[in-house]
Amino acid sequence: MSSPRVVVLAGGLSYERQVSLRSGRRVVEALRHAGVETVQLDADDQLLTRLTEIAPDAVFVALHGSAGEDGALRDVLDLLGLPFVGSIASACRLAWDKPCAKSALQTAGILTPPSVALPHSTFRELGAAAVLERLVERLGLPLMVKPTQGGSALGAHAVERAEDLPAAMVGCFGYGNTALVERLIRGTEVAVSVVETGTGTQALPAVEVVAVDGVNDYRARYTAGMSTWHAPARVPDDVAEELSKVALRVHEVLGLRDLSRIDAIVDDEGHIYVLEANVAPGMTETSLLPLAVEAARLDLGKLCRELVEQAAERGASTPSAASSRRLRPSPSPFSAAPAPMPVAESDPASDTEAEPGAGPESVPSPHLAPLDAHSTSPSPGPSPSSEPSPRPEP
Amino acid sequence: MSGTTHDNFARSYATRASGMTASEIRALFSVASRPEVVSLAGGMPYTAALPMDSVAAMLSDLVTDRGAMALQYATAQGDPVLRELICTIMALEGIDASPDDVVVTVGSQQGLDLISRIFLDPGDIVIAEGPSYVGALAVFAAAEAEVIHVNMDGDGLVPEALAETFDRLARTGRPAKLLYTVPTFQNPAGVTLAPRRRLEILDIAARHNVIVIEDNPYGLLGFTPPPVTALRGYDAPGVIYLGTFSKTIAPGFRVGWVLAPSAVRDKLVLANEASVLCPPTFSQLAVRTYLETQPWQDQIKAFVEIYHERRDAMLTGLHDLLPPGCGWGVPEGGFYVWLTLPAGLDAKAMLPRAIAERVAYVPGSAFYADSGGSGALRLSYCYPPPDRIREGIRRLAGVLEVELDLLATFGPSAIHDAGGERLLGAVRADSPGPELV
């Protein structure tokens, strides 16, 4: 097909606005290098007007935090009939809510750290001291306290001593009304990116993160020099293989699409604990997915281009989407004339493609082939287990 | 097997760069610029009140008539005519000065940087009000100086506390070198050093052989004329004075100045040359032309009326809406109200909730070089219109209620240490950026 015209959404009003803007710029640059005409837009009150005017072939969502990851914006894109890269709204909602996602994963037999999710009101009504005491009794120490929704480690606190728990709870509640208190698993922190391209669904090499001062907080994540990234991760081959399988399984169980990043801890015995799944992985200079792409000897621009072309093809093949967007004569895809605002009515057809349904175990994922290997079909990139990629040394 | 840090220079940075990291607070502030957020954080002058058509015509004429000069290098001390005009302006605040002793700088911020370069060695001690201007703290941190705060009350710096601090430091063998003060409509506290204290403060500094740096960006923005006499106006030629056009005209020109004794001036000129070769010629001539052709004193009056109305809106909102336990002063000019929170609340810890509720402020800890200020915050009334200010206060009140509820739930043990340890000389990244200082 001819080069699609793409809108990259970045910014928004979440706490991760700054990170998102950096991610957006990186995606725009990558797409432009790959020859894709790309415009970056913020998620503001002009967005719908601009999207209607531009009528892109596909939208790349680089919004982090609630706007980009809780599914709401993707619902809006569906309303507009605009195809987008990434998971559909219902899958986003499931992944965005960490306790719900954990439940789904546990039901599917995937290991996650033992945890309890409680809103502020529970502590107020039942007495904070008593509840916290029970939490420590049940989960032990150390603990990780984090908001049930959100990313970039904002509002997350590692707690070594029970007396530090109240302050961690208050710090966490600043970022959200419900706190997820997890047993802190010590081990190797890794992230496995999953991408779906025309050649199948594949897990990219796991990337290991080691914070220089031992705390993988916001500062360490987004300051070059404050973390060391190892890609592929320094884990035994069998663990690397298992990490890929687990990541693909998480991607499937949560009904994710196109790309995702699965964060996990490998403990000293080689057990893999999944922490969360990200539907809008960071794409900044220090983010994990671009590192994994490099480790897989893939080109970020080409990958992004393939993803947007897939999305555009989905849009073209969905009657409602195609009709609600302005159909463009090829090969000059764009005119200055604004497209009419589509009817604000959800399209049942567009929601049936990968609707996770009532329970995650029963998620039909027609876009995923059986997961009996790391890659569901031959991939241009090396399979993480068969041919570990060299580290992306500077 | 070694990985990548994405920074090949990680082991090469100077110590003073150690704090230049990504910061949660900066990430939160990045949302504050969005129109949905009522930003009571930024100290941005209301430049929209300028007569833009006149300014545009003036700038056009400048390029047409004197473009070759305006776009050329010039002397490091600054345009001579502009320096004369600066002396005329300083006279409004009781300062009798010669244009020869004025050095034009890139905003007063660069003037402060030049002063720190010629006076401060690593480890030198600077005394500043507590709280103090965040931009000054950044300059002193870059100079690897140690800042010690002295308390203020409603009348500004407390002379007894200042004398006691000077004495204590002298006894330890590490005497203070500079006293940095914003005596009039202080940023961030909004207080003004009472006239009766001004001579006293100057005497105490002189007795202890401490150089006084007077930073006076807001002196002409008082709500009740006449302007307060500057410290430098008290027959104190030893005071090094910083002025700026950022609040009386526009910060975008980036034109400020330093008034200093001639020996200091000579060094400032050389330091300026080393730093920027010369202050921007175009901006200097633009400011000079503005002063020569536009009714600038009337424009300052117009600014003051706007800020006065907005201050009143803020004070009314605070009075009507905030829960018991909050406290604030009544600024008689300038941009800021310093709000103290009910005991146990931490302004930095509650900032994410405030951003979620679409209101922004600057946590008090940003204005301290030590761990102070956690129980306070700075509110700016200079930029949003009165109805938005009230809406912002309403949102802030809601945030405070939830935080008080949290505090009641988890008790005093949940109080955060928002300040934390700070390395000497480490520039902090969790302070606000230039649009907020």
What does this molecule look like?
- The complex is a heterodimer of chains A (394) and B (437).
- By secondary structure, chain A is of the alpha+beta class.
- Chain A contains 15 helices and 14 strands.
- In chain A, strands 9, 10, 11, 12, 13 and 14 form a six-stranded antiparallel sheet that branches.
- Chain A is globular and about 60 Å long.
- The two termini of chain A are 35 Å apart.
- By secondary structure, chain B is of the alpha/beta class.
- Chain B is built from twelve helices and 14 strands.
- In chain B, the strands form three sheets. Chain B has an eight-stranded mixed sheet with strand order 2-9-8-7-6-3-4-5, sandwiched between helices. In chain B, strands 10-11-14-13 form a four-stranded antiparallel sheet, with helices on one face. Chain B has a two-stranded parallel ribbon with strand order 1-12.
- In chain B, α2 packs across α9.
- Chain B is globular and about 65 Å long.
- Chain B starts with 23 loop residues before the first helix and ends in a 27-residue tail after the last helix.
- About 3% of the residues of chain B have low confidence.
- Chains A and B meet through α1, α7, α9, α10 and β12 of A and α1, α11 and α12 of B.
Characteristic terms for this protein:
heterodimer; A: 394 residues; alpha+beta; 6-stranded antiparallel beta sheet; 4-stranded parallel beta sheet; 36% helix; 19% strand; B: 437 residues; alpha/beta; 8-stranded mixed beta sheet; 4-stranded antiparallel beta sheet; 12 helices; 14 strands; 40% helix
How many helical stretches of chain A?
15
Q: How much β-strand is present in the residues of chain A?
A: 15-25%
Please name the two chains that share the biggest interface, counting residues whose Cβ lies under 8 Å from a Cβ on the partner chain.
Answer: A-B, 50 and 43 residues
Strand count of chain A: 14
Secondary structure: helix percent of chain B: 25-40%
Radius of gyration of chain B: 22 Å
Ends distance of chain B: 44 Å
H/E series of chain A: EHEHEHHEHHEHHEEHEEEEHEHEEHHHH
Structural class of chain B: alpha/beta
Give the strand order, joined by hyphens, for the main sheet of chain B: 2-9-8-7-6-3-4-5
Q: Describe the largest sheet of chain A.
A: 6 strands, antiparallel
Shape call of chain A: globular
Instruction: Give the N-to-C terminal Cα separation of chain A.
Output: 35 Å
If you average the pLDDT of chain A, what whole number results? 82
